[in-house]
Specification:
Layout (H helix, E strand, L loop, with lengths): L1 H8 L15 H20 L2 E2 H8 L3 H13 L3 E6 L9 E5 L5 E7 L3 E8 L4 E8 L4 H15 L7 E7 L3 E3 L4 E3 L11 H8 L5 E4 L1
Parallel strand pairs: 4-7, 7-10
Antiparallel strand pairs: 1-3, 2-3, 4-5, 5-6, 8-9
Helix pairs in contact: 2-4, 3-4, 5-6
Organism: Actinokineospora soli
Pfam families: MarR_2 (PF12802)
InterPro entries: ArsR-like_HTH, HTH_MarR-typ, ROK, WH-like_DNA-bd_sf, WH_DNA-bd_sf
Length: 205
């Protein structure tokens, strides 16, 4: 679930995904704090600002500022209020599921399966292709079908992860010990992206 959120985060400008460079110590600290709050909300479910502050160790003003910023960015939302305690009821925050989406594709020798999930890791839609023909076209159509099944626009996919049955060499953009029809996989990520979700981050494992 957190892996999906990290993948989606690449498209939202957060500094908790591998490979993103954040310039300036203030901006870096802000990204780290935002990521910490999101991670606790992802792993523990809806929380009040007090609970978030206790889990992260952040001061109350800092916690409030982060929550307001994440809410303004559409990443978290108020889902309810506490009750039965003295004083005003506290707002309860949770991750906004529709804030981002990612797709995952598993390519095997005779078939492939694609799934689209939201920011919470919930699978919104899936599709399967049995009897591979042309791997590039099959992957693209499976991702589109999974997105349609989940009522998610392909343009909203922040990341697409494709797992292939071979040893992928990112430097040469090809696969060794490839067991699927269609060649070595050279240039496939570029072709996938140009045919489907060009603004998404396509990665291969």
């Amino acid at each position: 679930m957190w892996g999906c959120a990290a993948a989606v985060g690449h498209d939202r400008g957060l500094g908790w995904q591998e490979g993103l460079r954040v310039s300036g110590s203030a901006r870096l600290l802000r990204s780290i704090n935002d990521a910490a709050v999101l991670r606790h909300l992802m792993e523990r479910g809806p929380l009040t600002r007090v609970a978030i502050g206790e889990l992260t160790g952040l001061a109350k003003p800092t916690t409030s500022q982060i929550v307001r910023r994440l809410a303004a960015d559409g990443l978290v939302r108020v889902t309810g209020h506490t009750s039965g305690r003295p004083g005003p009821n506290a707002e309860i925050y949770a991750v906004e599921p529709g804030a981002g989406f990612a797709a995952a594709v598993s390519v095997r020798a005779g078939a492939l399966v694609a799934a689209v999930c939201d920011l919470t890791g919930t699978v919104r839609g899936s599709a399967e292709v049995v009897g591979l023909g042309e791997p590039v076209g099959d992957v693209v159509e499976a991702v589109k079908a999974a997105a349609r099944g989940g009522k998610v626009a392909v343009s909203k996919l922040g990341a697409v992860q494709v797992a292939v049955p071979g040893a992928y060499d990112p430097r040469r953009t090809r696969c060794g010990w490839w067991t699927c029809p269609g060649g070595t996989g050279r240039g496939w990520r570029r072709r996938w992206a140009s045919a489907c979700a060009p603004r998404s981050r396509w990665t291969t494992t």
